């Protein structure tokens, strides 16, 4: 009798602490309500804004050099990205986004829709409102969100190693202050400079299969102390020291 009560109390404490620190199934449901909730199972042939929301979250699970479109059309490439996502998280890799896939996505996202291991603050050390860049503040912030989901995929593929971002969005003023290129993708909000571990070359090599079309790393001028990843309409990779 007492043991049963003790077990019950332990369970209650675990649920309560899970809610506080934001982990576990209970918190996952809360995340769904706060950020975004899918109301139907999605598979190839589906279209709509709910597909676009899915694409934002799985765009980091592509093949080398591939960039997934955020077009709201659930085609073969979206299905392939969903399969890679499912396989990476131990789910049945059937390319169909149903309850199990959504549950994992809910567990991976914060209330503001950023992935759990990244934040808007990390992607913008320049100003508070994302203004002053090459695109509107809303577009810069949306671009940063897409970049964060690719980084979340890359982080998981690397074995859940923490990634350190030294620079993200920059206004023209912030970009000039650090001597950035006048056409820098940092002005669009879709670039991130990575430092620390794992090695800069490992980061540059890994970025190739996570939807980044611009990768600049060791051996490229001014990139010996960080690896730069971004979504450039004109794909370009260069990290000569790393064989890229
Ligand atoms: Zn950069």
From TrEMBL:
<dbReference type="GO" id="GO:0004180">
    <property type="term" value="F:carboxypeptidase activity"/>
</dbReference>
<keyword id="KW-0732">Signal</keyword>
<keyword id="KW-0121">Carboxypeptidase</keyword>
<feature type="signal peptide">
    <location>
        <begin position="1"/>
        <end position="32"/>
    </location>
</feature>
<keyword id="KW-0378">Hydrolase</keyword>
<feature type="domain" description="Peptidoglycan binding-like">
    <location>
        <begin position="47"/>
        <end position="105"/>
    </location>
</feature>
<dbReference type="Pfam" id="PF01471">
    <property type="entry name" value="PG_binding_1"/>
</dbReference>
<dbReference type="InterPro" id="IPR036365">
    <property type="entry name" value="PGBD-like_sf"/>
</dbReference>
<dbReference type="Pfam" id="PF08291">
    <property type="entry name" value="Peptidase_M15_3"/>
</dbReference>
<dbReference type="InterPro" id="IPR013230">
    <property type="entry name" value="Peptidase_M15A_C"/>
</dbReference>
<dbReference type="InterPro" id="IPR036366">
    <property type="entry name" value="PGBDSf"/>
</dbReference>
<dbReference type="InterPro" id="IPR009045">
    <property type="entry name" value="Zn_M74/Hedgehog-like"/>
</dbReference>
<keyword id="KW-0645">Protease</keyword>
<feature type="domain" description="Peptidase M15A C-terminal">
    <location>
        <begin position="117"/>
        <end position="230"/>
    </location>
</feature>
<protein>
    <submittedName>
        <fullName>Muramoylpentapeptide carboxypeptidase</fullName>
    </submittedName>
</protein>
<dbReference type="InterPro" id="IPR002477">
    <property type="entry name" value="Peptidoglycan-bd-like"/>
</dbReference>
């Amino acid at each position: 009798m007492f043991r049963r009560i003790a077990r019950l109390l332990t369970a209650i404490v675990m649920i309560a602490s899970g809610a506080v620190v934001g982990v576990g199934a209970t918190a996952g449901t809360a995340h769904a309500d706060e950020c975004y909730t899918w109301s139907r199972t999605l598979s190839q042939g589906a279209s709509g804004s709910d597909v676009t929301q899915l694409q934002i979250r799985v765009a980091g699970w592509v093949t080398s050099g591939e960039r997934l479109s955020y077009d709201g059309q659930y085609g073969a490439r979206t299905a392939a990205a969903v399969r890679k996502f499912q396989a990476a998280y131990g789910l049945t890799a059937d390319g169909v986004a149903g309850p199990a896939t959504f549950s994992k996505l809910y567990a991976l996202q914060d209330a503001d829709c950023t992935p759990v291991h990244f934040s808007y603050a990390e992607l913008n050390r320049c100003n508070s409102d994302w203004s002053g860049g090459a695109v509107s503040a809303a577009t810069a912030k949306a671009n940063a969100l897409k970049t964060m989901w690719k980084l979340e995929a890359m982080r998981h593929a690397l074995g859940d190693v923490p990634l350190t971002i030294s620079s993200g969005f920059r206004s023209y003023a912030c970009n000039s202050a650090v001597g950035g290129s006048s056409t820098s993708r940092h002005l669009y909000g879709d670039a991130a400079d990575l430092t620390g571990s794992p090695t800069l070359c490992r980061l540059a090599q890994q970025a190739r299969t996570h939807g980044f079309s611009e990768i600049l790393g060791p051996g490229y001028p001014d990139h010996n102390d960080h690896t730069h990843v971004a979504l450039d309409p004109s794909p370009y990779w260069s990290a000569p020291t790393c064989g890229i």
